[in-house]
Amino acid sequence: MSSVGLMVTCMNDALFPDTGRAVVTLLRRLGVEVGFPAKQTCCGQPMVNTGYLDEAVPLLRNHLDAFVGCEAVVVPSGSCAGSVRHQHRILAERSGDPGLVRAVEQAPPVYELTEYLVDVLGVVDVGAYFPHRVTYHPTCHSLRMLGVGDRPTRLLRGVRGLTLLELPAADECCGFGGTFAVKNADTSVAMGSDKARHVRESGAEVLVAGDNSCLMHIGGLLSRERSGIRVMHLAEILAATETTRTRTTEPEAVTAR
């Protein structure tokens, strides 16, 4: 049996716990043992992205301690997976600590969820059932930093009952960008409004993505427009079956350590 550590991310832990539960349900259904290192906290991305690199080093050290001994780390976020894979090495080298650099080099491999499903487990049909019209938004970090490509859409096409609709201008940024949405609110809302319009044009009932940060931004705009379109993390759709209601993906308690 494969074994992974779930890096649930700050946003999912605080605002979208159903996503973490769905990941556990999904991976266990596929025969993967999932652990939840209780020591985990922020990966440090907000600090790095706003220029506070030195302040992010303690978070890097904590991340390494939290996931030591895991075979692999699975993250339901292209943004946070990208941060760990690309920014942690920069932080370690900048710190001037050779031991920290070695620790980053020897850390368990980190996979965005769809990478783990398709590349490691070798599956595109995960036994899901979701009878709705869906469109997929490829978030910027998953698209540009990680290069997840068509893995998410291959998984969605394997879901029974699901109709996958094309999203116009899919590769355009939704405008969230973390602190960008705070510092450049007007621009962020304008970009998000364009994305919401494209979602409506797709004819979908549900907008799906691999990052809840982007879904929160787009979903807020869709809600204000009273569009009737829901937003859901990809993990929740992949965890759904005929015997589960929408958003009911309750696993057994996850092993904490």
TrEMBL record:
Pfam families reported for this sequence: CCG
InterPro entries: Cys_rich_dom (IPR004017)
Residues of the Cysteine-rich domain: 6-84, 134-218
Signal peptide range: none
Protein name: CoB-CoM heterodisulfide reductase
Organism: Amycolatopsis methanolica 239
Gene Ontology terms, MF aspect: oxidoreductase activity
Gene Ontology CC entries for this record: cytosol
